[in-house]
Amino acid sequence: MGLTKIQVTLNVYATSFERLVKDVITNLFIRKWIQIEKENVVSVEDSMLPEIIRIQSEGFGTKNQNGVKRYSKRMKKIFYVIKS
User: Fold this and answer.
1) Average pLDDT over the chain, rounded to an integer
2) Whose C-alpha in 7, 47, 59, 81 is 20 to 30 A from the C-alpha of 68?
3) How far apart are CA 78 and CA 44, in angstroms?
4) What is the dihedral of CA 13, 23, 63, 77, to 10 degrees?
């Protein structure tokens, strides 16, 4: 394996580890999150993901669906949307 491949592999692992650390820290800070009782604020359900991804793509010009799907699974207790 060449030096370039080793460096790329280390960069991938470092980026993945950084994301994991950020997710864990965020989760620790917001464990005591309390949902505000509002009729138009709801927890995200799996059936809502296609529409959320479509809105994100239109509003932010992103095509990456993995972030929304990943956070919807990891942060299910604190992942909310506002319906209008």
Assistant:
1) 76
2) 7
3) 9
4) 150
